[in-house]
Amino acid sequence: MIDIDDQGAIRVVTLDRPDRRNALTPAGLEALETAVADPPAPVVYLRGAGEAFSAGADLDSVAALAGDADADVEAFVRRGQRTADAIETSPAVVVAGIDGAARGGGVELALACDLRIATPHATFAEPGVTFGLFGAWGGTVRLPETVGLGDALDISLSGRVIDSEEARRIGLVSRIVEEPRAVVEEIAENDPAALEAVKACLRGRENKAEREDSEVAAFEALVETHAETLRDLGGSS
C-alpha cells in the first residue's frame, strides 16, 4: 500500500493502491507515518500510483465504524491526524506531487506537506458534506491557513471539484508543472541542514491540538448520525 524508494537525497513515497484510487486504511496511514517521520533523505516526494493522488480515507474502513457499536471513531480520526502531523513535523521537506484526483483525506495529507506541486490534470475536492461527513485529518485547521477562510468555506461547504488552475489561484498548490519530480530534484540540490532549518522556522503549530480535538468530536457525532448511509457507501465501493 505504501512503497518506499530511497534515491540519494530523495525518498520517494508512493501511495500504491491504484485500484482503490490510493484510498488509505488505518494500516496504510500508519505505514505512511513511518515512511515520513524520520527519513534518511532531506527531501520526501509523496505521490500516488495510477491516475489519482489519493481518494482519502478508505470507505470500507469508514463504513465499518458506522456498522460497529463498539468502533472507536476517535481512534480512526486520530490515526489520520497523527499521519498528517508526522508529515508536517518531519525533519525532511515533504513535497506532494499531485497528478489526478485528490479527494477528502488525500487533500488533507497534501495540505500537511510543505509544498504541493500539481500537474495540469490535478483536481481537488472535499466531498464529505455530500454524504454527511467532513475532512477530519487536520483539514479544518490547515485548509483555511493555506487558502484563507473564504475559499476554505467555499470548498468545504460545496464539495465541488476545483482544477489545478483554481487551486494555484487560491494558493492550494504552489506550482503547476508537467512533472513534479523536477521540482523535488530542484529542492534536493540545496543544503540539507539549511532545508531543515528553514522548514523548522517557517512552520508553526500554535493551537492546532485544540482545533484537532474539535474535529474529532464533530466527526464522531456525524458518524453516529449518518451510520446507515455510511454502511451503504462502504458496501458499494
Automatic annotation (TrEMBL):
Which molecular-function annotations from GO does this UniProt entry contain?
enoyl-CoA hydratase activity
Sorted alphabetically, the keyword list is: Lyase
Checking Pfam families in the record gives:
ECH_1
Task: Spell out the SUPFAM superfamilies in the cross-references.
Answer: ClpP/crotonase
InterPro entries per record: ClpP/crotonase-like_dom_sf, Enoyl-CoA_hyd/isom_CS, Enoyl-CoA_hydra/iso
EC number(s) recorded for this UniProt protein: 4.2.1.17
This protein's record includes keyword Phosphoprotein: no
Q: Which domain of life is it from?
A: Archaea
Q: Which family does it belong to?
A: Belongs to the enoyl-CoA hydratase/isomerase family.
Q: What is this protein called?
A: Enoyl-CoA hydratase
Species the sequence originates in? Natronomonas moolapensis (strain DSM 18674 / CECT 7526 / JCM 14361 / 8.8.11)
